[in-house]
Amino acid sequence: KKTDAVVERARHNVHESTANDRPSRYRLRIAVDMRCDRNALTAGGGRAVVAAALLSSVVLFARAERVPIRVLAVQTIGARGHWDFMSSVLRALVDRGHVVTAYTPHPDGGRANYTEVDVSKGLWQTADATVTAARRQRGAAASVAASRHQCDLVYGHYRMRELLRRARPPNRFDLVIAEPLMSDCAGHAAAELRLPLIYVTASPVIAYAERAYTGHTPGPASVSHAAASHAVPNTFSRRLANAVQWAATVVSVTCAEVAFRHTEPRAYDSLGPVAPSLVFVNGHLVVDPARPVATNVVNVGGIHFKTTKRLPKDILEFIEQSPDGVIYFTLGSTVKISTAPERIKKSIMEALSQLPQRVLMKYEDKLRCKPKNVMTKIRLPQRDILLHPKVKLFVSDGGVDGLYEAIDAGVPVLGFPLLLGQTRNIESLVSAGMAISMDLISMSNDTLLKSILNLLNDQNYTNNARLASKIFKDRPMSPTQSVVYWTEYVLRHKGAPHLKSSAPNLMWYQYYLLDIISVVLTLGFVILFVAYKGLKSFYNYYYNYSRDLKSKSQ
User: Fold this and answer.
1) Is 131 helix (H, G, I), strand (E, B) or coil?
2) Into which CATH architecture does domain 313-473 fall?
3) pLDDT tens-digit profile of 377-429?
């Protein structure tokens, strides 16, 4: 009886301590199996000596019942590539059994545990850009204005206003996932609902926004700017240009943000930004060279990979019937190659027609004078094509998702970077020895043909691509597992404040130690000044004393 009472109290205590631990999002059911060996009980005088009872086994079975995390996802960026990355993160959580409500400009259709709200009306999107327009880059102030305008549209949506009004604590949600660009207004829902915030960023480098996200600024001496034309600033001229570019961007973005907050104040300005618990970055060491990062930054490059499928019959036959292999040519989902100037299209076709390989090309219009070895389609199953063993080369615009697919397949790359960050992406693969970068506007059919043949005939490019593939796949956890683990980790630990740096709490002059430097310089100046005055007084005293002695001796 005493043993039963002890076990019952223990079981009750475990139930109380676990069932009430809401941040862990787990409830434990404890089953106690107690088997007493009757032979171990000693009898004497008609009495059972309970104190001599031996507990042969006490087995605790803990069965964890996951309570779904309720996620509010907010996408304020209209570009399809940004949503593809965020939707991959959300898909990982939904497949785990968590519940997601997404405000998105690119609704894909609801499914179990997943609800979408279409906020595409009026939202600026980069789809179907022309080749020449893609090369024009916005200024920092214009980008901040565009980001805030997109936040206005999303947070001004009637469904979002209703949600923020009704979903105050106790909340319908447990955390917020958002993607900022040039302004931190994207995380306004987390501030309004007082929930943990997780940022996602589709770029492999957080760049000039890293100070706002993690509290730390990457050193321009070793980390290149997102818009840089090099992977690593390894020369004096590159470090100088990189430092100027970093400083100009940080100052212009900060000034623009401050100006807009005073001249065009919004609701999200009054609450201020929320420091994210985590930042999921579409990065990997192959594309984003090694550098110091904050504890709460998690690289999940390649999370957009989907289960491979069998290629359509016409594409499969086109590939397998090519004795010399196949080249896959695309400029991504944002830029239409059909919008390129006629001179460029003519140069491309002339170069491709001289190759023994067949070419699969993503082309959005009817192609006149198409070479016999070229097949064009509006849409192509890119990853399934790259994984085919007969694909020898990938011609790309440098979009990071496509590069990850090429790296995963171990295929060399010929890059024509057009958009912000793509030059840096391609240059990282050039440094890895698996790519060549070219300028689409200035190239000719001869230079294009030479680069293609160089990539096809030099086995070093293929070997380096296969090495990069091995490095890319060698991870302790898959990107999907990383997203699930760290998202649940944040909620288990009530927002995981221990992952956040204290740096965001510092003023900019404190972070850069300008106050310390000014004190040291001031103190040094005072010491030098006192020393100067002391030496001068000593010199004057000695000079006058010597002169007096000399005059007396005369």
Assistant:
1) helix
2) 3-Layer(aba) Sandwich (3.40)
3) 999 999 999 999 999 999 999 999 999 999 999 999 999 998 878 888 999 99
